[in-house]
Prior knowledge:
This is Prolyl oligopeptidase family serine peptidase. By secondary structure, the chain is an alpha+beta fold.
Amino acid sequence: xxxxxxxxxxxxxxxxxxxxxxxxxxxxxxxxxxxxxxxxxxxxxxxxxxxxxxxxxxxxxxxxxxxxxxxxxxxxxxxxxxxxxxxxxxxxxxxxxxxxxxxxxxxxxxxxxxxxxxxxxxxxxxxxxxxxxxxxxxxxxxxxxxxxxxxxxxxxxxxxxxxxxxxxxxxxxxxxxxxxxxxxxxxxxxxxxxxxxxxxxxxxxxxxxxxxxxxxxxxxxxxxxxxxxxxxxxxxxxxxxxxxxxxxxxxxxxxxxxxxxxxxxxxxxxxxxxxxxxxxxxxxxxxxxxxxxxxxxxxxxxxxxxxxxxxxxxxxxxxxxxxxxxxxxxxxxxxxxxxxxxxxxxxxxxxxxxxxxxxxxxxxxxxxxxxxxxxxxxxxxxxxxxxxxxxxxxxxxxxxxxxxxxxxxxxxxxxxxxxxxxxxxxxxxxxxxxxxxxxxxxxxxxxxxxxxxxxxxxxxxxxxxxxxxxxxxxxxxxxxxxxxxxxxxxxxxxxxxxxxxxxxxxxxxxxxxxxxxxxxxxxxxxxxxxxxxxxxxxxxxxxxxxxxxxxxxxxxxxxxxxxxxxxxxxxxxxxxxxxxxxxxxxxxxxxxxxxxxxxxxxxxxxxxxxxxxxxxxxxxxxxxxxxxxxxxxxxxxxxxxxxxxxxxxxxxxxxxxxxxxxxxxxxxxxxxxxxxxxxxxxxxxxxxxxxxxxxxxxxxxxxxxxxxxxxxxxxxxxxxxxxxxxxxxxxxxxxxxxxxx
Length: 741
């Protein structure tokens, strides 16, 4: 049921409409005037910008052939430089970089606000690339073929207009394309439904549709494995966010459905097929005494055996599967990658990284734990390129490490031993001796132990970042505290280097907290599945439990506690703000979805129904309506009788007040006009409804930025400074009691 005609602020869903943008500009002006006036705003913004633009940060690279490729942004190049260098050069403190494309110069020449969205290089020569460029940071991109030798776009080369496009190479003169080609080419979620093989020199309209999904799918996509001797192309139908069916394209072009669970994710690796499980599974035909492998396991089988079973029309009953990883209490698999011979497992032990190496010795699979830095966040990035014959880097990988107090480090490692050669180290932006980091656990409403990290000042600070800040000498007594959480889509919040918090929050005496709620992936698929659909309330209860624990420990007070979250995290903090306002002193709600009656009808919202539910089903709406932030806004105490209409013409008498009068904490809502994933109408309408009900609301909408909220480092530093100014205004007991606008 579409209820938009009953919504007094439905007009704010008109993203580029004059009336809606006038409202946005008015709210932006009020918010900027209010928060820029806070002491230290300019200093905080400059400090954050310096961190983001630091020339000493680690250049993120991807190997292709003889080169390591990087997209670099700094103060002089806010849109970025696409460049490359060799590993020999990369080892040096100041490598020589070969410039391929200056995005700032391109944007100026073409009059476009280009934002880099990635490149697909065509091997093994790596002379041509498909570049994806976004206008203002949107998910939709323009795709253009680029010549890396001549440093220019190819005349008459492959080119696609702005759309949510999926492309990859199929040899030097053809590409696979999923894009908007007119009626029927996209799913209800706005992603590609059809896949075409487009030959060079022919019109896209003449490219045959080789594979397609259904309109109600999330998307159809293609993956090409170019490993010599094991070349494979697979087609994927994403049935929803968590289930998919996968077909192998056979030599005659026909698709072969792989006989695998729909919620498991397969990946070919040479002669092997890896299978990541999201739910318990026992392969059909396995002996009765064989227990099912638990969700979160990683299995392996001979790829040819799986394909033979598929061609025989059987399930995987003829296949011998083995488990390379099974979860244990407190232990989960966060990710994995492969060199030529070794599988690298990124494990989590109570949200702390552990790295394992798995290889087949010709007889059996062997596993060992790699001696690596910790406790913190570890990730492995293999350097192997299957196109390179006798690849000297086939068993080398880049090892990334960081934690809340340790700047990111990059080491060169080899699968055959535990030796790590330092390559790069991010500079320190605060003294780790001045901050204490610890992990705590809170007990949620149903008794579940929920982990969270606390960062708090440990010695005197001078408050240099924020003008007028007073020195703090001890950690005794409650402090202004920022609690950040996400709690959705199996995303794990692992430790990261807290440079921004160090400069803008910890240096002034604040406490920062990261909560690992159910709905995330910190303890594997079961941790996520406990807080989806009808169980989504558990992530809200987990956040409230962490807030209560912080207060009980004396770390903070309700008046000094702020919560922050973006996207699904914006929904999280929006719901908890309404359910437990007595625990909170401020809320920062970023690029959120909040209208749970209409979310599935706005942009990519239909793709998330496996996470939240279908509002058009009465049973689903029954649980959604209980926490939908847009539908649960109470009137503020003492709210005078509202006028018949607000200045924009909404009939306030039609706005429901579902609860008794409640005093909500001040809230800052942020979004982006160019966010084509989560519709900016969510944040706009929530702000309008909160204002109409008499609450303290500030609103900021960046005209660029996409779902990330900012298109470049300058915009990112600016919006972060606005958020920190809001939090200090709301939570610092030393702040003047300035009335909220």
